Amino acid sequence: MLTFVARRALAAVPVLLVASFLSFWFVRVTVDPTAKVRQSRDPQAVARLRERLRLDEPVVVQYGVWVRDALRGDLGTSERTGEPVSRMLRRALWTTTQLLLWGTAAAALVAVAVGVYSALRAGGVADHLLTTLAFLGLAMPPFWFGLLAIQILAVDLTRWLGLSEPLFGFVGLHSGDGSGFTLDYLRHLVLPVMTLTVGIVAEWSRFQRASMVEVLAAPYIRTARAKGVPRSRLVVRHALRNALLPLVTVMALDVGLLFGGVIVTEQIFSIPGMGRLFVESLRVGDAPVLVAWTVVTAAFVIAANLVADLAYGFLDPRVRPR
Amino acid sequence: MSTGHGADRRPGPSAPPGRRALRRFVRRRPAVVALVVLVLLAAACAAAPWLAPYPPNRQDLLLGPVPPNRSHWLGTDELGRDQLSRILHAGRISLSIGLAVGALSTAVGTAVGAVAGYAGRRVDQALMRVTDLFLVLPGIAILAIALERLGRSPAVIVLVLAGLFWMYVARVVRAEVLSLREREFVEAARAVGASGTRIVVRHLLPNVVGVVVVNAALAVAAAIIAESTLSFLGFGVQPPATSWGVMLADAEGYVATPQAYLLYGPGVAILLTVLSVNFVGDGLREVFDPRTAPR
Amino acid sequence: MNGPAAAASPVLRVEGLSVVLPGPHGPVRVLDGVDLRLDAGRTLGLVGESGSGKTTTALAVMGLLPPSARRTGAVTLGGVALHTADERTMTGVRGRRIAMVFQGSLGALNPVMRVGDQIAEAITVHRRIGAAELRDRVHELLSDVGIPDPWRRADQYPHELSGGMRQRVSIAMAVANDPEVLIADEATTALDVTVQAQVLDVLRRIQERRATAILLVTHDLGVVAGLADRVAVMYAGRIVEEGPVDALFARPGHPYTAALLAALVRLDRPVPPGTRPVAIPGSPPRLDEVPPGCAFHPRCPLALLPEPCGRAVPEAQVATPARRVACHRGAEVLSGRLDPLPVEQRAPVAATVVSTARGVGPASGPPLLEVEGLVTVFPVRGGWRRRVVGRVEAVAGVDLALAPGEALGVVGESGCGKTTLARSVLRLVEPTSGSVRIHGVDVLRAERATLRRLRRRAQIVFQDPEASLDPRMTVAAIVAEPLRIHRLWDADAPQRVRDLIGMVGLDAGHLDRYPHELSGGQQQRVAIARALATGPELLVLDEPVTALDPSVRAGVLNLLADLRAELGLGYLLIAHDLAVVARTCDRVAVMYLGRVVETGPVAEVFSTPQHPYTQALCSAVPVPDPAVERTRRRILLEGDVPSPLDPPSGCRFRTRCRRADERCATEVPVPTDRGGGHLVACHHPGPEAGWGS
Description:
- The complex is a heterotrimer.
- By secondary structure, chain A is an all-alpha fold.
- Helix content of chain A is about 75%, strand content about 0%.
- In chain A, helix 5 packs across helix 8 (about 185-215).
- Chain A is flat, with a radius of gyration of 24 Å.
- Chain B has 11 helices and no strands.
- Chain B is mostly helical.
- The relative contact order of chain B is 0.15.
- In chain C, the strands form 4 sheets. An 8-stranded mixed beta sheet of chain C has the order 6-7-8-3-9-10-12-11, with helices on both faces. Chain C has an 8-stranded mixed beta sheet with strand order 18-19-20-15-21-22-24-23, sandwiched between helices. In chain C, strands 2-1-4-5 form a 4-stranded antiparallel beta sheet, covered by helices on one side.
- Chains A and C meet through helix 9 and helix 10 of A and helix 2 and helix 6 of C.
């Protein structure tokens, strides 16, 4: 099993290299890294930077230099804030990871519950209602959902209940300078997590429902019933485990899309994570941050795919290595 | 099961596949309703110059923002512009972008998928590596960077969105072609002496039309949402042109103010459009799904 | 085993069982007044074709019908009324007092659960049991069903077991609680004959040891002959005939039963020259379009129309104390006053036809097809990168020759390479080495244009008729396609298409149809018409009737025989069913793991097989004669076919051969002529002692 994990991880390295190279190359050709220095009208400073980034050499060499520096922990300095990029990224990544973890966990939980419930009640009123909700979720631009959520759940509901402060926070992840895992934190998490996951909850629940319906019709379910397995055990032990398998693959694919959602969510709720960092850096053309950002994001997605791959191998004996 | 769910052996007059598909589509109520909604919406937007009660950009600073009323059904914004008129005009751009992205990404995806599925292992592997790579790249970021740097004309938006969507179609088409290729009727055609071109054109493509059409619908829906998201982040089409997304972005500042009504119009327009496209796509999926026995 | 039924007490009673399922055009009555009685420790065979309702009957007894089904009638198990029992009670009964074994597909077992756990579950859901005792019980069950090394097997997942093993596991699961009744629903259908023989043997032994009553649901009358005490025959949701197995086989009372029995070919008794089995016209009806009156009347040679057969549903008549026949003319047939298969239907094939069919031998003219040293190797890809991890020699050096107008059958079990051989001959897969010549033209080294010309002369018919027809083309377009491809489309072509359709027994009305609107038999006829369009001399028939219902098979086989006689075609017929080859072919080649082990005239090879594998294969085929089947000695092969990835050295059969010695492990046996063109590739050839008695 360990060699299997190692082999998969190793196989992800070339993908990571190519993907990060492409990201690097893309940002290099679209964002001029000397733009800021140029403003100082110091030709020597520009020349020094060009020399350091090897801008006159092929992109591959520039990439090599960047990777070498990156491996030493040096991702450059932000042109916007003058802060080391690595520190900015670490901070932002931590914030975003919280969002992603809570989001994925909540989405998976809700989607599986809804999917299984709908499948067991296929064709019933509840199923139709949940299906309609899922269609609405899929058709909703996530940012609009976020704005509506603020308006209705934070503003209107608070006013209606006559509360003095908003029921759910919608600026940042804590009020003021707060930190840590507190009730305040949870109240700030609700709306962003909802905004982030509205689309995938809808998609995953539809998927889980379809997969569950298919599994429930499988011959081995009939075999299990024929030997007298009671319904509850049938659903949990036989159907659910098999029905979860395909969802794992879909979840991995969607983590990439989730990063898009993070950008929007953090923008709406003023959360200082990767998304906000990206938008702010892009507005001013902060090349060092953008380069590092795209590469780190690609790596994150690849890592998520790897985890899904391993999870699948763990769950399905048919692809498990011996 | 031995209860006769097998192949359909219904005698009686047979209709060409297109007619049969249509008949089956019409039997899906939600899909038909959605199609009607979609057509009405598109027609209204197309006819905006004649239909809209006011010119979309006519300002009425004296009027300012008013909530929905009899002369302004959806109210006006800060500059006194009529929301309904703006939504109809913005729909032209949102829908065009959606359709164009759907068409372009479907064309590219179908071509790549068909070639990958039919041309053999080497080509297939190469193309699929590229496809997977595109799936790993942080799409929306690349998109935003590209728009920021290449300008924000609708053409660029379409190109970039299509560049990020084609992979999904390609994967589906490839899988379909791969499975069709193994079917015995393709082998039978080879045994009869059919050329590769004839097999692709006469036997494979007609049989993948189903998944292609379904995925095109999904791509249109996704493109409309993506365009609105880009606009919201500030990377959408530029004034005076406007889209539903741009309108929503403008309305962001009015959350928790008395002008929150500005949030609803464009949002509902997007919701209705995407919902309808999805329902139509779903109806088409069932029409083309071989498992829902053709009748 | 075959005592008077009245003496035993019924353990399972089904009375007036009817099931209605919702259909797209309204409710469909899939079962109509089914009565069954299964005595303790006995076996009842429930026989029918697809759509006859036999599986629905089994599921209805188990209470496993979909929730939308409406069931009426009574099901009583040992005095307990199951038809009124609630789901809770049924859950307690299922697997404990009545158990079921399903068709052995990979999907019948939970793919993510170890087989040991799945068997254990069958016990633990019904009673408390200690962990150690449970483990012992699971292993005992596994060895009971003949699984070697049960300790290791219990920890494996279903995909790690062969089809035969999985079916044994299913049986172990079903008998875990010593049920009074075991329902085996097509339990051996997906298996190879030698494996089927093993599994049937397991069922037989379990019944002897535990006195379990078995309801044997199958479409195969041969299987029934060996195992059942009584037989019930179903057609279109009704029981048409029921009685003791010997009496029913000896003298069928219903024309349908008679036709099914007549269509069977016995390997131990070759078809007399000049005769051929009767084919009943048409195919079984869809259950939402059951004809009025007797459902069988449109296909029945005895039907009295319009009255009574076309109007009144025949009631089950108790003809003799032990037999029931639901036929208006059943009494006449049973009393011997009426022959269920009238003479004109049983007429021998016209003399001229017979002489061409059987008379053209290898002697006349140069060979139509010559295959020499043919080898086809497939790379085996594994791992997530689909890298080549091994090679399978699917065809490992095959020599064959076929004279013009001759029919050569290739038989063997799944994985023996017979289908690859068929495709290699036509270069639908690219062979690795060797040569194939059609009329002296080298197929494997042919240029594109030559290959195209060859494709006019050699055609193929596939196993699955529905899959082999483009779903988006009409019948006319499908049959016309070869003509268009070979630029033979001229003013006469439309007439040619009509002629072809007529030649295969369809009419012009079918030309505008789409494949899914035809029955399986009709689809296969279209595929044959397409293959004949360019006027070929060689037809490769790859399992041409395997996907068809038994009552439809005879018609297609008769058509193939007629076409051969009329057009002087040469056939290379691939089949796993020896009977099909016995009926259709002049010569036969037996394949095992990519090699031909025995070849010769059909009658000779099947009556006096010389290779131990052929002997086992012939012995495994059930004989549709209860008296013979019960008493004959079987040669049961041990274990499964070795992996083609790593075939045994020397003789590939040696690992399962009782005659194998050291020489067999080192030396590949060469085919040697045992007289009359009967070639055997074995170091120790010769008839099996006691075989054929």
